[in-house]
Fold these 3 entries.
Entry 1:
Amino acid sequence: MIVDHLTWILRERTGRDLRPTSQVGAEPTMPRTDEGSGGSMKESLCAGVGRSVSASSHEAGREAALEALERAGGSASLAIVYATVMHDQQALIDGIRAVLGEVPLVGGSTQGVSTAGRVEECSWVVGVAVVSASPRIRARTIAVQGFSADPHAAGLALAEGLAGAEGPLLLWYDPLTGGNVTELLRGLEAGGFPRIVGGGAGQPWGPLNHTYQYHDGVVLQDAAVAMAIEGDVILIHDVTNGTESLGIELEVTEAAGHILKQIDGQPALEVWTEQLGGGPSNNVEDTASWALGVALPEALASHGEELITRAVFGFRHDTKELVLQASIETGSRLQLCHRTPDAVYERALQMATRLQRRCAPYRPLLALSFECGARPRPFLGDPLAAQEVTQMQEILGDPPWLGTYAWGEIAPVGAHSYLHNYTFPLVILAERS
């Protein structure tokens, strides 16, 4: 069961469920094995992605899961799910589980979904990705509800539940409950997981309302959900933001965690509204005008992108403070940044080219994108957003692709993971040879 803060769930699929009170569905059919050149039998892993735009939530989940399952060869070892908030979230997940059974399942609500040759930001859309069942792959999942109360402890709990896993973790979280994502990542790193890729669950572009996170058969809020994928697979990742400094430097003269109190000695909200022209409303359309860039150490800067970008996610009008998703220390120097469609688009294609080269020794199974929700329709527009994704898919060789439009993105830079905004992390799940 899931209860309040720091009660966590561990679910590990090894042919049985480790929770004594859980019921396990029928084992999925194993994929066909092929005889290798040395006469040994080796199972081929495969992945499938399905989608639905049905307004019937249970049917939409069922329809997307059936398509994904068919494309994966009829079995599933894990599922990743994204859906818009207009859906009845529990009915949707129930429809997916009716098809896939009790496979480990993670994901969250989203602003939109990208799949092969298609980008959809609409009221009713769901995307499901699965990887075929095999002894060569295993997924473990864990969820912590109420993570915003103590994000560092929540990160430690996630790490404890996935202890022993190798490689990067995939992570989803609620971006709208005021949780300090830097502390969540610090807790995960203290527990042995410095490399995390993922994003905040999403909602329609506009006023901030609520998001949902998915863990197995349960729909959560104010939660952090993680998945470890182990076996004869590797997660290969990269990141791009496409922002450029305007040459205007600001100093954080007072901060408390992820709350900006003063910038250049003035109340942070006054600087935001009076000097930068930002809007003080509870609408991301008014906060997306500017990005705050935090400089990386020179040794970590790469690909011409030397800044980690941060966005404002809330206002405290009574104290004239700005709320971010991640910490910025007092004394930090910020760069005021802007984005151009050309830089956003071209750097995404450059990232795909880098990943294609790095994937050469492996067989790509599944692409998972965590593109910031402020990049597609709100900035690039629908035609260019679709062209961006389609061209990236072509560069990568058209693997099965499932993308969310995230509200806050997580990706490693160097040896540590950071919270980013206006950014595009991309992960390739690949089969080892």
Entry 2:
Amino acid sequence: MHDEDVTRVLLAATSGWPRSADEIARALEHGTCHVALRGDSDPVVVGIGCHSITRAGWTGPLIVDESARRRCVGQALLGQICRDLMIAEFDRVIVADLPDDAARSFIESTGAVASTRYQRMSKQL
């Protein structure tokens, strides 16, 4: 990935997906981040797919801009993550933190099956 693309991804993550920006930055540093761009002269980030650097075999952020959904961007990014993990000799990928029913439906459409349900809990500070 070119330096200007890394900058473009970091800016897009910070402005569009701030909750995932730190993990995306770490994945970029470690080469575990794939990006979908639209346009040639001034590309726009329309998708980011990472695998976790702290949890082997897990996906990190998998984000597709609403303007690019239902155009196989998510499938392409997830495919690259799976390819990386297969090369590293993992036999499965764990996709956690599905934020809504649309994300869950997308992952299920790829053939994934639920093996464990994770529950997010929070405490007011």
Entry 3:
Amino acid sequence: MKKNHDYIHYYRGYWSDGGKCRVRIYRENGQVPVVICSQLPDNCNTSVTNMAEYLAAEVIMEHDLSTPVTWMEHYPEHEGEIGEYSLVSFSDWDSQGVCLGGVWRCQVGSPAWSPLSAAEVKAMLVREPGA
């Protein structure tokens, strides 16, 4: 798949602004979009794991992505910690407004995580159209 976007996404955490993560979007005609959302070592705000349903809604709306998307969460190697990937499934892709920390936000359904190996991530990024 072709990488269309690779940038730092700034977001509001549970209680304050200042959250940031790396977002990579892979998209090709006829294929489900793939988003890799990476926790940054210098993010001192709410983690991408705790914000998954909010970040997914934000990224989908900002980039006008068709749903469902393949959403992956990534924690890179850092200070001796092993890097890891997870496939995040959401119970629903419809965006809903909710009040979080006194601010109205959009979110998709409840997330569930399944671990992925680096080889599985690579295979998902090179899949054939219609596969």
